[in-house]
Specification:
Blueprint: E1 20-26, E2 29-34, H1 48-60, E3 66-71, E4 75-77, H2 82-91, H3 99-104, E5 122-126, E6 129-131, H4 133-139, E7 143-147, E8 151-153, H5 167-175, H6 177-186, E9 191-192, H7 193-198, E10 204-206, H8 210-229, H9 233-247, H10 252-267, H11 271-281, H12 297-301, H13 316-322, E11 335-338, H14 350-360, E12 364-368, E13 373-376, E14 380-392, E15 395-398, H15 402-408, E16 410-412, E17 417-419, E18 421-431, E19 435-437, H16 441-447, E20 462-463, E21 465-476, E22 479-481, E23 488-504, E24 521-536, E25 540-544, E26 548-559, E27 563-569, E28 576-590, E29 594-601, E30 608-624, E31 626-634, H17 639-644, E32 648-663, E33 670-675, E34 682-690, E35 701-705, E36 715-716, H18 721-728
Parallel strand pairs: 2-3, 3-5, 4-6, 5-7, 6-8, 7-10, 11-12, 12-14, 13-15, 14-18, 15-19, 17-20, 18-21, 19-22, 21-23, 22-23, 23-24, 24-25, 24-26, 25-27, 26-28, 27-29, 28-30, 29-31, 30-32, 31-33, 32-34, 33-35, 35-36
Antiparallel strand pairs: 1-2, 8-9, 16-17
Helix pairs in contact: 5-6, 9-10
């Protein structure tokens, strides 16, 4: 890699990429040049991941605001290296023609660009031939400058392969079906820059002859990049994200909501916005500061710094595309009930909502249409329900009058809980793609600095969805948003299911995080089924409490959570509590505290009980602390107190199977920790195919205390030199990309 002098403002040097030239032709501008002219800048399979890392580096450098991609010689990029494919095909007759690319392709796609969501704009400077994967990269660029002699095309079908790097779904959106079919099905390669401009693929065509026009294409691209870099970097990033959301299939209304509630909130009244307005008033050129969004994008999308395997959702939008809401078919025999929507956020329709449920009870459907808001400002007792459907396509939003709710909300003695409303009855279906909004920001602000389990805490926060004495409660598609405290709490209920749901809690105040916003909590429940959920909150992803039996959880994406937690149980003196027969599989655990954990109380006032027959299977881990964790000294019990008053919760028949991925490095090379109480039975704990690694390097290990017998993986005492060495090897390394195959 050759490069010009590095700008002093860069925090880190660019990563090395074979056959790529890197330079900085203008302030805040990065130029990437593919440099395999003899091979027409065809990209070998080994180069896709390094290029993806280069674009990640570009996004992470606040000083850089626009990037240009071009090629050396007479080609921009002729696509994949077909000679490499041919060699691979000949060496393994059972391989498909696309296997070399498929095995090594990063989530960002061909050249690290064809499927890159990215943070900042990339401008293509198409100097010549642009075929196959090269064209697929261009289709995902933000702006395109092309030589009048450039040629475009997708010849894949003429070679017996398919343009699988992102072009096919984008072509229809950009060009319409007929032109997209012409490009994809005929395989022609003679399309000119002028034609591509008329079709909306190219922005600017540069005229000229010979090598001079090639240089002029880059010069023109630098001018365009400098123009982009001269605008507010915050505004460019957020505007680009809005365009991307729309281009990738999110509707205008939803995309605008995502921007307004997420991205825009990060720049509203920020330094660059204030400077833009001030410079206009003062009639001078704005002086921008580097965007802080460069360090915040992945957090905004809900995946931290983790590179996920191909096909795994990275946002609520991608989750919905992969797992669309599947509501029940309309039943013409059910009567349809509607109510008036709220005129504004202060227009309380609680009475209308209650009447609507009474009217729809015993065989009807209450319909809350999309685009409408229904504000609830008083507690509602909904425990009378029987054979009813609620179709929520709009938004139910609770008022945030915190003193009123703390005085008037329903109460439950377990952990001093309060609730906006309480649901109950039998055969209750709640479905749709609407939002249940707890309006939690004020609650989080006022709770900041407190602890929910602190005996002196008197600031109680409502649970968003509470049900008691419910049988046959089925919830599908709903987005649970910004709960003040726990998101759901099911009590003395059975036959509960949640399918294709979303749960988020994202604070706009960095000093007031959404604490204790567990997605699922329960007390005295049986027969629970949860399938396909996206959870981005600040506490447990799934956490049945005392007396839970027969639970099945399949396919959850948990970001920033405390994990898939059994308990806590054993909290109350003299009280038996238990969890048994739970199967949890196909979990994506990201940027959290732990992945699979079991927690039981210790101390002088703790109760007793058991956790039995629990299976954690198929867990992919990214940036978690311990990936398998048994905590028998819960909650905030120091070692001395725990030793004096150990837990009396038995833990038996626990399986951790098919665990992969990596930890955060917080505990060095220790990837799991099992602490069993001397006052309880702790037996038949099994590890199968446990392959979690540490980013700190070296051999990962599991720490065990109080475990009798083999667990199926090496396990050492916390007092051993091996454990002490592993715990001391702390690091905070970024994860590497994974192959496209499902880890298990």
């Amino acid at each position: 890699m050759a490069s010009s002098a590095l700008p002093a403002a860069l925090k880190t040097p660019p990563p090395s990429v074979p056959n790529v030239l890197i330079s900085f032709p203008a302030p805040n501008v990065l130029l990437i040049t593919l440099n395999r002219p003899k091979q027409l800048n065809a990209i070998p399979s080994s180069q896709h991941a390094p290029l993806a890392a280069l674009y990640d580096w570009y996004d992470s450098e606040p000083h850089l605001r626009a990037a240009i991609l071009t090629g050396s010689g007479r080609a921009f990029c002729a696509g994949a290296d077909l000679r490499e494919w041919d060699r691979a095909n000949n060496s393994a007759s059972t391989s498909t023609s696309s296997e070399p690319e498929k095995v090594t392709m990063p989530p960002a796609g061909f050249g690290g660009l064809s499927n890159r969501p990215g943070l900042k704009p990339v401008i293509a400077a198409v100097n010549g031939l642009c075929y196959g994967g090269g064209f697929e990269m261009v289709l995902n660029c933000d702006l395109v400058v092309a030589s009048q002699h450039a040629k475009f095309g997708l010849p894949e079908v003429t070679k017996g392969v398919v343009a699988l790097a992102g072009a096919l779904p984008r072509l229809g959106t950009i060009l319409g079906r007929q032109r997209a079919s012409e490009l994809a099905l005929l395989g022609r390669t003679g399309y000119t820059a002028a034609e591509m401009k008329s079709w909306g693929v190219v922005n600017f065509v540069v005229e000229g002859e010979g090598e001079e026009v090639v240089r002029e294409v880059v010069r023109e691209a630098v001018k365009v990049a400098s123009e982009v870099a001269g605008n507010s970097p915050d505004a460019v990033i957020v505007s680009r994200e809005g365009l991307r959301l729309g281009r990738e299939g999110m509707g205008a209304e939803r995309a605008t909501e995502v921007l307004a509630t997420g991205w825009y909130g990060r720049i509203d009244k920020g330094e660059n916005m204030r400077e833009g307005v001030r410079s206009f008033v003062e009639r001078r050129k704005a002086v921008w500061v580097d965007s802080k969004l460069s360090q915040d994008r992945k957090k905004a999308l809900g995946v931290g710094v983790v590179e996920l395997p191909e096909g795994v959702p990275r946002s609520v939008h991608e989750f919905r595309k992969r797992h669309p809401v599947q509501p029940w078919a309309d039943d013409p025999g059910r009567r349809l009930v509607t109510i008036r929507p709220s005129k504004n956020d202060n227009d309380d329709v609680s009475d209308d909502f209650l009447k609507g449920l009474h009217d729809a009870n015993h065989g009807g459907t209450l319909f809350l249409p999309g685009g409408e808001k229904f504000v609830i400002g008083k507690p509602l007792d909904l425990t009378f329900l029987d054979n009813i459907q609620i179709r929520l396509d709009g938004e139910i939003k609770f008022t945030n009058d915190t003193p009123y709710w703390q005085k008037n909300a329903f109460r439950h003695p377990f952990q001093n809980s309060i609730m906006f409303w309480k649901w109950g009855g039998k055969n209750i279906r709640i479905f749709g793609d609407g939002v249940l909004n707890g309006n939690g920001q004020r609650w989080w602000n006022e709770f900041s600095g407190r602890e929910i389990l602190d005996s002196t805490n008197d600031y109680l926060r409502p649970i968003l969805f509470y049900a008691e004495n419910a049988t046959g409660l089925d919830i599908r598609g709903i987005h649970f948003k910004d709960s003040p405290c726990w998101t759901t709490f099911f009590v003395t209920s059975k036959d509960i299911s949640l399918t294709d749901v979303v749960c988020t809690a994202e604070s706009e105040n960095a000093t007031a995080r959404p604490k204790n916003t567990d997605f699922f909590d329960s007390l005295n429940v049986e027969n629970v089924r949860i399938e396909r959920a996206w959870v981005n909150i600040g506490d447990d992803c799934f956490s049945p409490k005392s007396n839970a039996t027969n639970m099945y959880v399949n396919t959850m994406y948990c970001n920033g959570t405390h994990g898939q937690s059994m308990g806590s149980i054993g909290q109350y003196a003299g009280e038996l509590s238990f969890i048994r027969n739970v199967h949890i599989e196909n979990m994506w655990m990201l940027n959290g505290q732990h992945a699979a954990r079991l927690k039981s109380w210790a101390g002088p006032d703790a109760g007793y009980g058991f956790i039995d027959n629990i299976t954690f299977k198929n867990f992919w881990n990214g940036n978690n602390e311990y990936t398998a964790f048994i905590d028998s000294c819960y909650f905030n019990i120091d070692a001395t107190t725990c030793a004096r008053y150990p837990s009396r919760v038995n833990i038996t028949n626990i399986t951790f199977e098919n665990f992969s991925g990596t930890t955060s490095g917080k505990y060095g090379r220790a990837v799991g920790r099992l602490t069993c109480s001397p006052n309880a039975v702790c037996s038949n704990i099994r590890f199968k195919n446990f392959n979690v690694t540490s980013p700190c390097g070296g051999s990962p290990l599991v720490i065990c205390d109080g475990i009798k017998g083999s667990i199926g993986t090496p396990c050492v005492s916390s007092t051993s030199n091996e454990a002490k060495s592993a715990l001391a090897s702390k690091c905070t390394a970024k994860m590497a990309s994974l192959p496209s195959a499902t880890p298990w």
